[in-house]
Design brief:
Structural class: mainly beta
Largest sheet: 6 strands, antiparallel
Shape: elongated
Strand content: over 45%
Distance between the termini: 36 Å
Number of helices: 0
Length: 103
């Protein structure tokens, strides 16, 4: 992925694990999640004739909230938000729109 600055390239990967707490109100499902995630990143900065690479990794917390609506007994539409806290100083938000069908 091209970075925000010209001549930069960044790549990040991660895995998160934690419990999901869910409650039901009529056709709605409300959920909250909390846990930890492991991540790795590679950043390459290129300038005239030279480049440098920085690698970093960590194990940091995340929290999230979500809601979904049962359109039928097997089909759900949902929206969720997750905040990842990286290096105790950088907050990264992820929004998800989901359509789920259970067989």
């Amino acid at each position: 992925m091209e970075g925000a600055l010209p001549g930069t390239k960044s790549d990040a990967r991660g895995l998160y694990v934690g419990p999901l707490f869910e409650t039901f109100i009529d056709r709605f499902r409300l959920n909250a999640r909390v846990g930890m995630f492991a991540w790795k990143s590679d950043i390459t900065v290129s300038t005239a004739g030279a480049s440098s690479e920085t690698k970093d990794d960590g194990f940091d917390p995340y929290v999230g909230l979500g809601v979904s609506y049962a359109m039928t007994e097997r089909a759900f539409f949902g929206l969720s938000w997750t905040r990842f806290r990286v290096l105790d100083e950088l907050d990264t938000d992820a929004w998800e729109v989901r359509l789920k069908y259970s067989f």
